[in-house]
Every structure is written in structure tokens, then in C-alpha cells.
Amino acid sequence: MSAHSRFQLHIITDGQRHVDELKLIVGKAVQGGADVIQLRYKSAPALDLYRLGQAILPLIHEVGSRLLINDRVDVALALDAAGVHLAAKSLPVPAVRHLLRANARTEHLIGCSVHSVEEAQEAERLGASYVTYGHIFATNSKPGLPPRGIDLLRQVVESVNIPVLAIGGITRDNIDEVLTTGVAGIAVIGAVMADQDPEQAARQLREKMDSSPHRPRHALPAAAF
Q1: H-type helices in 35-130, by residue range?
Q2: Ramachandran region of residue 64, left (φ > 0), alpha (ψ -120 to 50) or beta?
Q3: How far apart are CA 118 and CA 173, in angstroms?
């Protein structure tokens, strides 16, 4: 399957694992087919995040997958990671792009979390490589907040000319519906991180995506970094 038509599977760490457990889960997830591991420990000091990244980066590179760092541009640069994923409280995309270009030899991915068509369009205008939109289904990480659903996801996908990843409550039981929207892929946390067999959980999602009759409207490159 061409990299230009392949759905991507991004695994976001849950910020609850010590280094040995994280290494075990990440190693299994990339063996199961994860394209990207996004290292997210919201309250971790820079040094702790850097050391976690150091511990898992060889496992990720071994299979040709990529590491993104959530929010911390400095840690991403220190690790020579493939890029960063930004939230609303993060530095603006143009500032991040400037920092990454000034301190690296290759182009980086810059992702943004968005929650509306307008936010997605603004992220594209500012130069984001891709956006993550959600939450699509009910999820334990967003208790009490109503899901945004498939129809709004489709609107976001069709409103921009950059890849859109879906996030929030996505499992192997509902992923088929998500893929009909033309997303570039999915991002999950608990569906893999909390599974007793992370490798099998990732592989089942990977197989669902690879066997889907649908394809991304705008795909993320599989090996550009």
C-alpha cells in the first residue's frame, strides 16, 4: 500500500507509566503497527520527559516509526524527535516552526489539537502539518463531555487541505465508521495503552485500517523524516 494512501495509527502515552512499563508498552505498540508514538506527560519536568524519550526512542526507530513530543519543543529538539503536537496552551505554530527550522536539518511534523472547523482552518492557515479532532465518541479521558460525533468529524476533514486524525473513544468496534470520513488515521490512548496486550490491540486497529475500502482525503507521509 502506498504511503500516500495509508491510514496512520498514533498512540498517545497516558502519562501514568514509569520508564520500564512505558518501554514495554511502546515496544509492543510499534511492533503491532503504530506509526507514531506521541509522548505526553503533562506535568513532567523537561528532564524527566527527555529521559523517557531517550528510553523509548530506540524501540521506535527500530521499526521505522516516529516519536512526537506533546507541547515541549525543547524536548523534541533535544531528542531529535520527528516533531511536536500542540494544544491550545502551547506556543503558536509559526513560533514553533521557526524554532524547529532554526535548530534542525530536516522538516518536522507540527500537529495541533482542534475542536471545531474554525480551529482546524486556523491551524492550517498558521502552517500546521496536521490536526487532531475529537473527541469523536464517549471516552473516559473526557468524562461528562458529549462526544462530537462522525458528522462533525467529516465536516472538519472536508474543510481543510491538511491531514486530520480522529481521536476519542475509538476502538476496533467503531473504527470502520471513522474511516468513512476520509481521516488520515486515528490517535488513541486507552485502546492500546490500557490493553493487556498492547501489541495485539495495535495490530487489530492496524489491520482494520489496512483492510478498509476507504482512504484518507489527505494522508500523512509515512517516512518523510
Answers
A1: 46-62, 73-79, 93-102, 117-126
A2: left
A3: 30
Q: Which three cell numbers stand for residue 18?
A: 514509569
In CATH terms, 8-211 corresponds, of 3.30.365.10, 3.20.20.70, 1.10.630.10, 3.40.630.10, to 3.20.20.70
pTM of the model: 0.95
Domain range summary for the chain, segments of one domain joined by +: 8-211
- For the stretch 68-112, pLDDT in tens is 999 999 999 999 999 999 999 999 999 999 999 887 767 899 999
Whole-number Å distance between alpha carbons of 40 and 175: 23
Q: Side-chain half-sphere of 141: how many Cα atoms within 13 Å?
A: 19
pLDDT tens-digit map of 160-197: 999 999 999 999 999 999 999 999 999 999 999 999 99
